Amino acid sequence: MRKRKSAISWLPLALLLAGCGTMRTSDTTRTATEQLLLSHSIDDSVSQLDFRMLSGRRVFLETQYLDGVTDKGYLISSLRQQMLACGCLMQEDRKTASYIVEARAGSVGTDRNDMLIGVPQMSIPSVMPGIPGAMIPEVALAKKTNRRAVTKMAVFAYRRDGGEAVWQSGIVEATSRERNSWLCGAGPFKRGSLHRGTEFDDQRVVVPLLDRRPGESRYPVVSVGQPVKWKRGPLPEDEPIQTAKGSDDSAKDGKVIQTSNTPPASADAEKTE
Known about the structure:
The chain has one domain (30-258). Helix 2 (32-47) runs parallel beside helix 3 (72-85). The chain has four helices and 13 strands. Helix 3 (72-85) links the parallel strand 1 and strand 2. The N and C termini lie far apart (92 Å). The chain is 20% helix and 33% strand.
């Protein structure tokens, strides 16, 4: 009897000590996957541009024709970064530049498609008054969802005084993909540009014949997504523009070199020779 009374006396204290925790979650307007796919395709397309023809020249980037483009700010910053990597002298004022680089984008967007082998989710309407309809859940033997982002763009350069054509890049295009697959309810198995091989439950799964080692870089200068450092400054402004062949030769001198993912000890750029 005493033990029972003791337990009852402790009950109010236990109620005071008991509690619960809550965590507030929210979703952004655009999913992280969509933003990553778009930025990845922008990085790949901009990295294909070779501005070394304008190395050592005062250049102004004209961006008015990029109005309305998705992730306009990210695209413009990536273009400026690539131009600097190629040795261009970026100018904030159009009047102080010797050359104008004009950029346009034909596509910066995403799309998706789904495929299902099985029974899709459907509702059965009521056939008798007072009896509600039924909902049949999805029964998938196999399911696949593909998402992609495509960036198509082009740039060209001309002299500010006189408007003489100097160079054009041609059309550059890059596509990033996200593939999610389910098999007999298990999944998703993720593959694509955002993953290294195949991932399941945020863990990498090695699939023979599908997971291959990444190839060598196909970019003319360096990817905007990789760390670099400059060994020397750009060519003087009064030096004549080199031909495309000459630009390739100058690149061999090591104007831009690849570094490791570890940033340098000092935040300042390496001094010019």
